[in-house]
Every structure is written in C-alpha cells, then in structure tokens.
C-alpha cells in the first residue's frame, strides 16, 4: 500500500486534514504540539487505498525535541510515497521555510495550502498556480476544516507518487553552493542516500549529521576557516536560514495579493484581546476566574449564588417545587447546567434500578441475587455513570478554551511563572491534558527537550485531576456540602483542583532544585490566532470521551464491582453473609488488616466499624480511579441499610448517606480526596509512565514519589484540619526541609561520599 505522510508546522491543520481524509477522530487543538506521535489511517477514495500518516508538527528538519526527531526520521527512513506538506496559508512565509527543506529530500512533495477559507475571509488571495511554478512542486489550495479541495489534493499527490522526484535545493547560486556541492559529491561517493539533504545539514553544522559523517564534516570545517561573510561571519546555519528566507520572499510575494485593510483590522482586534488576556499582572487572576467560572457552571447547586444572596425571592421556593423533583434547583438556589444534567440522569437511573429491584422481588428471585444485581452491579455502575454529564461538560469547557486559542495564551502567561520553577510554558500543555486523562498527557511530554524537565513533568501529571478522579471529588464534595449544610460543592471541587496544581508546582520546584536539575527548554511557541471553536470537532471529542468512559464502565468497573460485591458478601469460609454481617466478610478482613496504614491520613483505625470501606475504595482505585466511587456505590446501600437513615440528610443519595454513616469527619474526607488525587494513578497511567521513563530505577523512584506525596499532603490536611495547632509543627518541618535544600544547593551539605579522597592524598 502507498504511504502518504502529512508534514507541516505545528498548528497548520495536519490532524484536521488527517481526520477528514481517514474519518478518524484524532484530537485537534488550536495549540502547537497536540500530535506528538505518528498516527496512521486509510484514505479510500483513490484507485487504490493509501495509508495516511499524521506526523508531529515541525518547523524545520533540524530536530531539537524528541517529537521532531520522529517526523524527520519518518520522512528520511520510511520513504513515504509522497510527503503532503501542509502549509498554513495565513502564515505563508514562515511555513514555507520547512518546504524548502523538504525539497532537498528525494521524495515526491506536494504543498497543501491550508486554511484558504481564512485567507479568503480576510479578503486576500493566493495564486496557487504561480506558487507552483516557482517552487516546482504541485500546490493545491484546501480547507481541511470544510473539506474543500482535499480530493483534488489527494488525486495530485497520487500522481506525484507515481513519478518520483529528484531533490533540489533553493540554496543554489548562494555563497555556500560550492561547499554544498562538494559535500554532496563526497557523500554520494560514500553511498549515502539523500546526499543533498545530508550535505546541506552538514553545511548547517547540524549536530547529528556532523557525528554521522565525520569525514565530510572535516571538509566543512576546513572551508569554514577560509570563509567570512559580511553579515554573518562564518555562522553557516544563519547564512543558510537567511538564504532560505530570501528565496521565499522573492518567490511567494507575487503569488500573494493582500487586500490590506482587513488583515490589519483583524490583527488589532486580537491584539486588543491579548492586551487584556495576557496582561503581566492580570493574566493569571483572569485565568483563575475563568477556571472558577467553569467549575461553577459544572458543579454549583446555587447558580451565580443568587440563592445565598437572597435574590430569588419567595416565589422561587414555591416555583421550583413544581418543576420535577428539584431537578432545576432547590430551595437554596437555581442549579447549574452540570447539576441539572446530573439530576436528570439520576431520575432515569433511579427509576431503572427501582423497576429492576421490584421486578426481581416480585419474581421470587433469591435475595442474594437481587442484592448482587441491584446493590452490587447497578449501585456501582450507576454511581459512576451518574457523573458522566458533568465530566463531559467540564471537557467541553476545556476544549472550548483550547480551541479558541486561549489556552495557548495561558501557557504564555504561565511561562514566566513556570520558568522560576524550572519548567517552561511548554510543559503546561501536557498538564492541561492531564485534566482529561494522564495517559495521552504523559506521551505529550515529548515536546519537552530536557530529559529532567520531561521526567519531572510526567511525575506531576497525575496531580492534575483527571476525568476519572472527578467522581471522587464530586461525590465527596457533595457529601461534605450536605453534612455541613452549605451548598458550595463547586468551591470544594475548585479548591481541590487548585490543590493538585499547587502540589504539582511545589513538587516540580523541589525536584528541579535538587536531583533533577537541567536547562529549561526555550519557549518559542507562537500564539495561534483566536478561532471560533468548531461544533463538529467538539461533538466528535465528546462522543469519543463518552464512548471511552462507557466502555470502561462496562468492562473494568463492572468486573471490579462484581468482585467487590462477592468478597464483601462472603466470609473466609465461603458462607453467604447478609448485609448486616458484612463486617465479617473477606473484604472487611483485608480492609481492616490494612487500616492502620491509613491512620496518619485520617481514614484508618480511628474510624468505626465501617471505616475499612475507605481503605478498600482507595485500593480498588489503583486499577481505575472510577472504582473508588463504584466501590462506595456497591457497598453504600448495604451499609446504610444497617443504620437508621439519618433524618437530617433527607433524600440525599446513598453515597452521601454512607459517608455520614461511617462517622468520618470533614478533614479526613478532604484528606481522602487528596490522597486519591495524588497517590499512584490508575494502572494505565502507571504503564504509560513506565514506557516513557528511561530506566526502571527512575520509574521506581516515581512510584515512591507518588506514595510519598499523597501521604505527606493528605496527612498534613488531616492533622491541621483536626488539630489546627499542628500547623506550627508542619511549618517547622517545611522550613527545615527548605533549609536543607537551599544549603545543599549552595554546596554546604554534601550527601555524596567523596570517592577521590585517597588519590588526593597521594598527589
Ligand atoms: P496540527 O497541529 O497541524 O495537527 O493542527 P490541527 O489539525 O490540530 O489544527 C489546528 C487548528 O487549526 C484547529 O483549531 C483547527 O480547527 C484549525 N484549522 C485546521 N484546518 C483549518 C482550515 O482549513 N480552516 C480553518 N479556518 N481552520 C482550520
Ligand atoms: Mg496535530
């Protein structure tokens, strides 16, 4: 099968094109660096099916970061039948820079002038034919988003792939053309493939090349000594780059017809927005407010705090009772969109389990079987699924922020802050992705050039609470809000997210100033233009997330809940136990055995007879974080059934009932959230971390790091929450730790044993 590779600058629309060619739903983002690994799909509208390969974005073929190496090696080693060079037509000059390098490889190239719709909207024109004559390879104007011109593009790419193409360089006739030719001849003599490309890279004194071809590199070195250019001295890399840009501006300017006015107008509007959104001082507070608004719209039971401000009036109390059973709000206030969706789904699921339960009871099914189906399976599954609307809503908001181009601005404002902690703003992207799922986020750290920066980032990614951890946060935040009688679940969830971010920053700071020092990658991300988010790609993304979530619910989580139900309803002698006797079960036995381990973090031995459920839930979370709440759901009705229902809680859902039945306090509940958020992530994330780490040792340290972070932070929360004066002890401990780090950095403390002592004495 023929292979066509999509290559181009970051954010030029490669993945959008890939998706519309292959019908896939790969993640598209208005952000450079979304695709960090190559991806394959099949295009079927030609005479024969062809494989399409989406490569990570690159600015040039001299790689600096691991993901740039992937693209370069693919084009050089895998020899695709055609390279489709996607070019952002709104930013032609910079994008063609890569094109001039692709031309130097013996591979058919076709240029796809993407985003032509934007060019037209701005009133500009690009003459594709003129450009084609100048560059010497086919140029096709397309809009990947709207699908315009893409079949034409593929047809011409197919023709190209049949003919083949010989490399040529735009550096001919320049100051270095003789040197390039000499190198090329030498390399061809040595039987090197793509001699021209390597010759140019050698002249540019690309590090990889110089190592690979030491002999030819010597020729370059000798020539260099005799050479002196007026502007650049003997900086060959700069001379080559300059000649490329000169070539581009000579050849593309007459293919581009600007209308002038509209372009400028657009620029100033986005500039005005940027002046506020990326403001030196206000940038970060604005971001925090936007983030809070997102949480408020997703989790608040009192929209805009109208209820607590008393703005709803008397009529509201009577009105809200008429609309369903409090779906749209309660006496406290109007529900946010997220809560409304949650309530609606809750109505559906509770009527389903009610119907099944009464059908099974009437049908004379054995009591244990009813228990398994209704409490075990449905209780567990529904308690997890009930959070799906809020998860999707949160993803939708994040995705809107990303697509509009705002998230790239946030990376820009955070860069200044991050740099102090030894990270670049680039690391922000994988972290934000961590709010969705740690697995792709960890893979995305390949955009970071410094190995230690990458490791530190991978380690803290799980602290950015992922979608699967959301049910833990929401369920327990809801429980706390109900126990304490305040309706601010949104503030609790928001604070827990912030806690994760703060712990991540502190941990990075600590790592980067002790064992994991290194250079901070330069941050040369350009800001993408503001765009109106596309409904289509949003729907695709949410649909994908939903499928993934439901699939997981009906596989891993379903299996886990069934297992949990069995081990909680059978004793070690395989005797069936009714709900009241669950304390004698296998699960309770194991839980109680491990309970002391969790005493320092608040949900260990100090809890009453049902305290072990927290321990068990946290442990099942190591498989998938949804399991924490699924376990609660499975055990909740059994436990609450053995208590007299707490009247003050009214019609609260069973998980909240269970929490209050165990007698756990608020500090321990918050510590429980923190523990689950910071401890070893789910199985899939652990496996990804292992794959992305250079050595087993580093990975083992990572596991240790996760365990330590979760213990330290959650015991701090628990102890301070329980006995406020321990705050002084903690402050003292931290001051001591920071002093040690500072002294260590100044070289006043040395933990290493000096090995060269003996040799020193002899000399
Ligand atoms: P990649 O980084 O090269 O893979 O780029 P993406 O495919 O992720 O797209 C980057 C951004 O450009 C997204 O916001 C897309 O919606 C947008 N985009 C892609 N193609 C077009 C197009 O033809 N027209 C317009 N107006 N926007 C596009
Ligand atoms: Mg991409």
Q: Total number of β-strand segments?
A: 10
Stretches where pLDDT falls below 50 for ≥5 residues? 644-652, 753-763
Strand content: 5-15%
Termini Cα gap? 68 Å
Contiguous helical run count: 33
Residues in helix, %: 55-70%
Specify the CATH architecture of the domain at 2-161: 3-Layer(aba) Sandwich
The main β sheet shows up as:
6 strands, mixed
Structural class: mainly alpha
CATH class descriptor name of the domain at 2-161 = Alpha Beta
Mean pLDDT across all amino acids: 84
What is the C-alpha radius of gyration, as a whole number of Å? 30 Å
The kinds of small molecule bound in this structure are: guanosine-5'-diphosphate, magnesium ion
With strands numbered from the N-terminus, the spatial order across the biggest sheet is 2-3-1-4-5-7
CATH topology of the domain at 2-161: Rossmann fold
What overall form do the CA principal axes indicate? elongated
In CATH terms, the superfamily of the domain at 2-161 is P-loop containing nucleotide triphosphate hydrolases
